[in-house]
Write a structure and sequence with these properties.
Family: Belongs to the ubiquitin-conjugating enzyme family.
Low-confidence stretches: 157-171, 173-183
Strand content: 5-15%
CATH topology: Ubiquitin Conjugating Enzyme
Pfam family, one: UQ_con
Number of domains: 1
Helix content: 40-55%
GO molecular function: ATP binding; transferase activity
Largest sheet: 4 strands, antiparallel
Strand order of the largest sheet: 1-2-3-4
CATH architecture: Roll
Shape: globular
Structural class: alpha+beta
Oligomer: single chain
Order of helices and strands: HEEEEHHHH
CATH superfamily: Ubiquitin Conjugating Enzyme
Protein name: UBC core domain-containing protein
Keywords: ATP-binding, Nucleotide-binding, Transferase, Ubl conjugation pathway
Amino acid sequence: MAIRRLQQDFHHLMKNKVDGIDASPSAENIFLWNAIICGPEESIYETGTFQLQLAFPDDYPLRPPQVRFTTNVFHPNVWWEDGFICVDILKDGWAPSYDVLAILHSIRLLLIDPNPLSPANLEAALLYRDNRAEYNQRISQMIQDTHDAENNNDDDDDDDDSQIEDGDTIRQKTIILRHSITE
């Protein structure tokens, strides 16, 4: 049942492409998926591209997958140490009708609508509540650090590494990264 449902989820995801969301199962294990979400437009996360891993149980969709960011994310509802996400859709609010697209869409919305009353990251929750400017600065720095690390890992870098990438360039890189996930 789970394998068939995961195949249906993948087919649905490919048929109903959503800007800023992509996912596919690993080549070796249909129960382990890699995903990418782009930060929602007009948000502090806008220039970020975030990688996630979804691990589905044998009885999916009766139970939700475990989902974690593999990219560092500073957020009240994301554990800093391991990237696991604290969101109702993956816990008590789970319903078998949810599919991979619904999960990723909910996580993308969570980025801009955190719940600081149910924190996984207390520091982020307190900053979100008490010092929004510092909270936003930490997110901007985290995104910049991620971009810097990616640029340092690129063997094909141009000589002009100091150029700041705009949203279109980042989204183009995301498309390339999406293709590498689905191959």
